[in-house]
């Protein structure tokens, strides 16, 4: 059996690893000239680590540097709005890990035969029968997997009449600041904007910023430094220490719920199937779950029954997590002064276990 995978990011390469380990022939078509990843840091949560364990790769991340769960949420003056019991989260759900996105891609790529990787191939059309039209010609396979991101050609080919990704109203910056002490993984909420920092194993600090803005807005580091200059420490210092070339900006999109993740002999996964807001940090973890689930179902049941089983297992779960992710970040982007003041008053009064209960469905997944 041959599997063609469209897209060579985290989800696509994890899919290739999963099928290759089951003895299937794989071919990965990647539009970019090389299999790499631009971006900053990435937190792999317990469910994502279990998916990597199923691929035999989880211990590589644990060895690189375990991470603590999110410590909580502050307001811009530094007052805690939500304070998590970090030790209890680790006890209940297992370890977290942090990794550079490029390092995770390298780890997955090394587990795929080099001859299966085809960079510089631009896929233009995918048909339900497993035919793929691309810049090098035409390829066919028993199964095609679209792992080609939020603007997926595979998804548009199969469901051209369905609505595409929608802009959620805020743009996102990601950067890695030089080594400096920070108090764990913390997110800070303002009015229509927020800032998060996550310590990395080598001492550097992965930071992300989100702010309400029209789609296509481009805001540079100098303006960010000014906007966040009066936030609590270490926010201003992290921005001051970061060079402009280390900052990446992307508008934030999510995908309306698809009626199916499969059509004929083709499946979509990761952002191509369920692109979600980054509020829960589950995007990469859900793609890893998809890859493991799909390979197991198809290799066990065959293509068509396996695809049906994959859709039944993954669509309800990922669409639930996408909804919860949207809800989790909504309050950070309120802009009314009275409403945000009420938010900052009420959140500290909520039960401390509310956060862990809301994320139990995400964290407790097992292959």
TrEMBL record:
<dbReference type="GO" id="GO:0004497">
    <property type="term" value="F:monooxygenase activity"/>
</dbReference>
<keyword id="KW-0503">Monooxygenase</keyword>
<protein>
    <submittedName>
        <fullName>FAD-dependent monooxygenase</fullName>
    </submittedName>
</protein>
<dbReference type="InterPro" id="IPR002938">
    <property type="entry name" value="FAD-bd"/>
</dbReference>
<dbReference type="Pfam" id="PF01494">
    <property type="entry name" value="FAD_binding_3"/>
</dbReference>
<dbReference type="InterPro" id="IPR036188">
    <property type="entry name" value="FAD/NAD-bd_sf"/>
</dbReference>
<keyword id="KW-0560">Oxidoreductase</keyword>
<feature type="domain" description="FAD-binding">
    <location>
        <begin position="2"/>
        <end position="324"/>
    </location>
</feature>
<dbReference type="InterPro" id="IPR050493">
    <property type="entry name" value="FAD-dep_Monooxygenase_BioMet"/>
</dbReference>
